[in-house]
Amino acid sequence: MCCKDIEHKLTLTVVTPRIPATTTTALKVLLCSENVPPQVNGIARRIGHYASGLEQLGCDVELLHPDCSDKMVSHVNPWNFTARMMILKPLSFLELLMEPVDVVHVVMPLNLSGMWILAGFKIRRAFQGTQTPALVISWHCNLHDYIACHTPVLLRWLVRLVLTFGLCWILPRISDRILTPTRATEPKLTSLWKCKCPPEKGIRAQDKDNKCVRIYTPTRAGVCHTGIALDQFDPDTVTSNWGKRWQACKQAY
Asked: What is the pTM of this model?
């Protein structure tokens, strides 16, 4: 794992991955994110939870981020001067495509190096005639709201045009699945990952009286759980033993 000095000390609640490994060995996960601990932001904390949770489940996780100087060239994020973005080195890109990987997980939005990685593995799968590795995107930002608040008025139409006909057009075609922290995150975006199948092959569900049958169109969108225990994440628990431990972990980061 790149940069082994990163320690994740929080207790997590993680859903077991449903994607089976190609061998009896540990599931190999390539996780690419521009936000990782010890950065102080929600995405970094969530990815720290996710990576350490997968390791606790026995997965072999390789974490790519801007501080992996052997594979990445980092630069300042022009939208957030406290964070960094990354450019994948060409030779490292080719080396990654040769690695045996079960899952490629790219953290979005605006992770351009991650998009190149997804596209590269998509092409590799086409040549090999396989569906391995699984290609997953997790989206951690309401980007349209962010644009409305932080983009100059005269540039908003151009930025939305690039996102609609560029980023949002490409991503569903180079990935198998998109995950969001909640189902309310970017519903228009996640709807682009619907499965292309006729209605008769949809998921049928009946109501309690078995009278009304609804057909749900299968989707390639899901939820990437944050690891928060909802029964404990409450203002009244701040002074409890669990709340004190959480505060201690927060200060450690």
From this structure: 0.71
